[in-house]
Amino acid sequence: MTPFGEKLRALRAERGVSQKAMAEAIGVSAAYLSALEHGRRGAPTWTLIQKIIGYFNIIWDDAEDLARLAENSHPRVRIDTSGLSPAATELANLLAESIEKLDEAELRRLSASIRAALGRRI
């Protein structure tokens, strides 16, 4: 499941909406919506994100947060380290080889550490 899929499922649950009803309302199939929630489909298009935001009547920061989650919910990530340092290539390969071995707490800690490192450079 992707972060976007997790949020989408939570929004549906909060409002008591079935996949079928939501899919019909936004013009997609229930199978597609299920695949999107489970991370078997890539990030949705900007147009579909806007339909979902409208469907749930999400405004301002919450709408931006949902769009950001969609942008960061590609289930198959490809990292091109050509032209980067050997350390960058090593990190990318280490993560690719071992991400499934990390628990949720470790994943959150690593994500926070990377975000903090990026924040120091802005």
From TrEMBL:
Domain HTH cro/C1-type: 8-66
SMART domains named in the record: HTH_XRE
MF (Gene Ontology): DNA binding
Pfam families named among the record's database cross-references: HTH_31
Source organism, top-level taxon: Bacteria
Protein name: Transcriptional regulator
